[in-house]
Please model this.
Amino acid sequence: MATTKVDNGVNVDALLAAREALGKAPEAAQFNWRATCKWMNGTHSRSAVQGFHGLGQEQKHKTTFTFDADHPEIFASEDKGATPVELVLVGLASCLTAGVAAVAQNRKIQLRSVEAKLEGKMDIQGILGIDSDVRNGFDDIKVTFDIDADASKKDIEALVEQSQKRSAVFDIVTNPTNVTVKVNAVNAAGGGAR
Amino acid sequence: MATTKVDNGVNVDALLAAREALGKAPEAAQFNWRATCKWMNGTHSRSAVQGFHGLGQEQKHKTTFTFDADHPEIFASEDKGATPVELVLVGLASCLTAGVAAVAQNRKIQLRSVEAKLEGKMDIQGILGIDSDVRNGFDDIKVTFDIDADASKKDIEALVEQSQKRSAVFDIVTNPTNVTVKVNAVNAAGGGAR
Model:
């Protein structure tokens, strides 16, 4: 047992209380996460994240988070933001990392530093339509964690394993999710009237 | 035919030339996209995106793009960034939007505005470990596009359909991707020596 109090900045008591409460009121556990996206020019878009639904009511982040996305100059774009696939890597990295901190807190393991490097292999013959047998997305993703913590190598590995088991984005990336796309044609006149 | 030149800001000629060139040199089409992530405190992390590999050599974005991710206050976190799952929605939104612009350019359709709203349903009984039959990720994702363009409703719908067919993130979300996780225990002493 460590003699000093373990503090990774995660309020595990609150999370355990939420687990207890939501187990009794499963309708409050139904969340809706949202993003909006506005086309700027070319492959450049700006997305925003603020409102979401959960615990039975509308919720709001403290601030609106905005994200520019674009393609790099080697694709004849202006490189005004990360590429959409890099955003997915960031989502995966941050989900696993938050999980490591939460699990470490629950297991009373003091973290000193956690760093992750992610690499997603992609054959762009897929998205360019050169070869229809090549998938559009990543062939595979490699995640490498460097973790400094008051624990054995085995216990540190177990932190990451448990984080994977509870990670929303790890699930989204490794398993299929149904996506429904609806299109509203606004003012579509077909004649270039404006 | 429109009498004015269609310009959505996408250099389709360059993309078609790249398709031609990469079809003859498939090894140049092998890309590696990367992100690094550093744990800050609690569920807050900061990720960075800059280098990637493609066209047979190391490449760099013009700038380093950084992303704070966190959980909201209702999860007893400090809400210092979007949640990881919202980042995935942003990746999906921006990928489909860039595709709509590129396809429209190729089909000589002038876009006036493109806006997307995304909504991902999630039962957080999964990530909280309340019910092991509930998945951690999204139950499903709904995307709604509002598009104003010089084209018929049918042609506008076809833009989005083609964008889905070539979208890297749409593929990543709707199909499984293998993720390998490696853990290095740095300075792991197990005794709280520092």
